[in-house]
Design goal:
The chain has 21 helices and 14 strands. The chain is α/β, with parallel strands linked by helices. It has 4 domains: 113 residues, 3-Layer(aba) Sandwich (Udp-n-acetylmuramoylalanyl-d-glutamate--2,6- Diaminopimelate Ligase, Chain: A, domain 1); 86 residues, no CATH class; 116 residues, Reverse transcriptase/Diguanylate cyclase domain (Alpha-Beta Plaits, 2-Layer Sandwich); 88 residues, Arc Repressor Mutant, subunit A. The strands form 3 sheets. It has a 5-stranded mixed beta sheet with strand order 1-5-4-3-2, sandwiched between helices. The longest helix has 32 residues.
Length: 486
């Protein structure tokens, strides 16, 4: 087995006066004493060749030995101070790019020291691999724990696990990885990758790569089990969606791992496609059909229930036209009887760090408007809340709207609180835009919304936002005011 010992390491450990000529990064896997030119032709690659006897007696034979050692891919040639080598030998070593070590010791002593160092390195490598195998074989591995195990086993290196899109799952990425190992994850986006980083190239040897490969099976098993849980039950995907909404699209370490295991994009931009079942459809059958359809299309990274619909997660790695998105919906419902009468709403692109609930609500609202009309697909950023929300309400919903916002209506003597709340919801809580529409200062907007929250109505609560928006829009329309006017 190849070792991580280099010529530079060998020089450091010889504990002898050494004059070194040539490169120092070659790997040293063994040692051989050579007393004749014929024996040089039997030298294995990555071997430290110690010259003795007749081959070390004359300058020409030493130079020839260096040439043959280079041809045999030896790691270095060791000569003693008493051997017949000259400055020309050093020049030849530089030209051929093979190290020549001139040591102040007898040939046999030099050979024994080199052999001892190689054997010790072999034992160290075996011990490192054994310790890593025990660590990865006895603990329940998660991405965070795998990185910690690698760091403990190989403290000179730093590690990072990234998904197929290059986003960090665990660990910390550096500028340029010295080692890379593929980690198959059970979804179409491709394998995750395990990277190793070091201060200098010599720190990342063959043993380090072998230790990293020991982490691959438990990481793959971890992801597969998470994926199976997701496919067997909607509870896992629903929980991930709730946590992603709560994190406002900026997931922490544990959530990043869960997203990676299920194949969801860890970082934005995202787009969401809401599929709304036809009235009376069986919820369980509909969800199973969505999961089957989503798993068959590369454009879909994940699916989860959201309110009374299912939402498909679309990584926005490239721009998609409305025609392409409509074609995607057609492809999803084709062949799935449970989806034949579903309607779809598509959100605008959501950048990383932006609140997701607004986009999810917009996609769901568009799907409901589509169900009320003749279209199969509508786009949430095209219809606008002034057009969408009334279409979502059944006749006679005005009393329900008054009940939902009763405390606000009692306190809102001149209608400014209701108007401010509605415009804020219409424009996704962007204070500058809301202030511009209302023709007031941003501080005034902030004060009014704080007053609304003090009445027990929180437009920032994902569980309340859509209901509050619908009720506010219906009441404002009922008062006969133009939407968004001051």
């Amino acid at each position: 087995m190849a070792r991580s010992l280099t010529v530079a390491d060998l020089v450091d450990r010889l504990d002898l006066p050494v004059v070194l000529t040539g490169p120092t990064d070659a790997q040293v896997a063994g040692v051989r004493i050579v007393d004749g030119l014929d024996a040089l032709h039997l030298v294995e690659p990555a071997t430290a060749v110690v010259l003795t006897g007749a081959v070390a007696a004359e300058p020409w034979s030493v130079d020839l030995a260096v040439r043959i050692a280079w041809e045999r891919a030896a790691s270095c040639v060791v000569v003693t101070s008493a051997d017949a080598h000259t400055e020309a030998t050093g020049a030849l070593a530089v030209r051929l790019s093979i190290a020549v070590l001139s040591v102040d010791a007898a040939p046999l002593d030099a050979a024994v020291r080199v052999a001892t160092i190689v054997a010790a390195d072999e034992a160290s490598a075996a011990g490192t691999l054994s310790a890593a195998a025990r660590a990865f074989g006895t603990a329940a591995i998660t991405p965070k724990r795998a990185i910690a195990t690698l760091q403990k086993t190989l403290p000179a290196l730093r590690f990072a696990l990234v998904d197929a899109r290059g986003t960090t799952i665990a660990g910390t990425q550096g500028a340029a990885p010295l080692l890379e190992v593929a980690v198959p994850f059970p979804y179409r986006a491709g394998a995750a990758r395990l990277f190793a980083y070091a201060e200098r190239a010599g720190q990342a040897g063959v043993v380090a790569e072998q230790v990293m490969r020991l982490a691959v099976p438990p990481l793959t098993a971890w992801a597969a089990l998470r994926r199976l849980d997701d496919l067997r039950s909607t509870a896992a995907s629903a929980e991930v969606m709730r946590e992603l909404i709560a994190a406002d699209g900026a997931p922490g370490g544990r959530l990043r791992a869960a997203l990676a295991a299920q194949g969801w994009p860890i970082a934005g931009p995202w787009r969401f496609l809401a599929l709304l079942p036809a009235p009376g459809a069986d919820a369980e059958s509909f969800g199973s059909a969505v999961l089957r359809a989503g798993s068959s299309h590369r454009a879909v990274a994940g699916a989860a229930p959201f309110r009374d619909a299912w939402v498909l997660v679309l990584p926005e790695s490239r721009a998609r036209s409305e025609g392409q998105l409509a074609a995607l919906v057609d492809a999803l419902v084709t062949g799935e009887e449970q989806l034949a009468h579903a309607t779809a709403g598509v959100s605008a692109v959501v950048a990383e760090g932006e609140p997701l609930v607004n986009a999810l609500d917009a996609a769901l609202a568009a799907a409901k408007v589509a169900r009320a009309g003749t279209d199969r697909v509508l786009f949430g950023d095209r219809i606008g809340p002034a057009a969408a929300l009334p279409a979502l309400l059944p006749d006679g919903a005005l009393d329900a709207a008054r009940a939902a916002l009763g405390p606000l209506l009692e306190a809102d003597r001149d209608g400014t609180l209701l108007l401010t709340l509605t415009v804020a919801l219409d424009h996704s809580d962007r204070p500058a835009v809301v202030a511009s529409v209302l023709g007031v200062h941003r501080n005034t907007v902030a004060a009014r919304l704080e007053r609304v929250r003090s009445l027990g109505i929180d437009p920032g609560d994902p569980q309340q936002r859509l209901a509050i928006h619908i009720a506010a829009r219906r009441l404002l329309d009922a008062r006969g005011q133009a939407a968004g006017s001051p």
